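dumping the sequnces here before i forget
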Amino acid sequence: MPEFIAELLNHNDIFNATTLMHYWDGLVTTVQLVFLSLVIGLLMALPLAILRTVKNPLVSGPVWLYTYLFRGTPLLIQLYIIYYGVAQIPGIQDTFWWTIFREPFYPALLAFTLNTAAYTTEIIRGAIVATPNGEIEAAKAFGMNWAMRMRRIILPNAARRAVQAYSNEVIFMLHASAIASVVTIVDLTGAARDIYSRFYAPFDAFIFVALLYMMLTFILVFVFRKLENHLLKHQRPAGS
Amino acid sequence: MKRLIVAAGCALAMMTGSVQAADWKDIRIAFDVPYEPFEYKTPDGELTGFEVELAEAMCEELKAKCEFVIQSWDGMIPGLLARKFDLIMSSMSITPERAERVLFSEPYYNTPGGWFARNDFNTDVTDKAAMKGKVVGVQRGTTMDTYVTEELSGVVTVKRYTTADDMVLDLEGQRLDVVFVDYPVGEQTVMSKEGFKEVGTPVKLGEGVGVAMRKRDKDLAGKVNAALKKLKNDGTYDAIMKKYFTYDIKM
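..and the predicted 3d for all of it:
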């Protein structure tokens, strides 16, 4: 097998050491971008989802508006607004913000984080709202206060209900990250586009990158299956 | 008798062959408009531009009656192969990929790559030490991209854009220090705004633009090359070029 790979590398113009390094850099950027935006997005989404279920509209209203705005517009538009829009604010170049927004990575991270946080908020809210009344009543009968009910009863069960929908969101986020390449970030798609335009070989460049995305997706699917097995252990038939 | 028929057939075939070879008295030339200043229509609908005038001069040289055809870019090479026209003179750069499908004449022009920056940029772009750490914008896949990647990689940070407009926005927003683009593109996008200037001198890149023909029309290619050569040498080419450009694109 290694000889076969060496043979292949020696006998084609496109996949040499330089372009493979380019793909590798792209892979690292994509994983960083997606991982960071998902982690920050999840940390933001949890409190937002709880606020979203509060009955007072002054509390839940702003959260509703935020999720409505970010789920109601395409991620590409959000990225354009944050990347190009910020640079048009007069005088921004002289403030310390510019050290962050000058590089394309941070505007993209911000757009991805806000976007995934909005979707995740709605996923978690749905799971919280779907808590059976009986569980809450039982918790109240035990004398648990709101915080303890949240921590012991509502959120653990909501997590079980949300994990399948959330695994979809994670995979969508990985694929949505492909649009980072429009703001000059060399992620996986950016690397593929560079190599395509250099060698005029769309099939080779894009099929290779598609395989890399599939590989990442398989890893995610595997991880989430393990997590689901763990969280939903009680639903399996006895003895299995 | 049989031999006679064969001989007659051969003679006929040769005749038609020679007739076709000599038959470049009517030539149809395709342009994709508008691509100022190479080919465009004046407000009263007349087709003009650098390549149009050059084509007119070339037809005069070939003593041929020329018909100009408007063809959109996507259908250029298919239209040529389907005999809708005989020549393409529409700023088609010579590339190995295209040369596999069409026959190119000798190049007749080449637009240089130009360096453009904001007015406060004071670095010599040819000085590698001074350029260290600068951020350079190019259009992905252009000859300018190849040039910067090969000559300056490791010295500058290269950012690649799909459209020139996005690139100009980032130059304006100070994400880029300098851009390196096709000179006419730079003139139209960067220089049409306030606060930008050209830096350094334009750099000639690539193989240039040639007249495209069907591969079988080798006789036509010979004539076109001879005519272009004559125009380049007798001053006609320079006169047309000076009408449209302030810089040299001759090749």
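Chain A has a mean pLDDT of 91.
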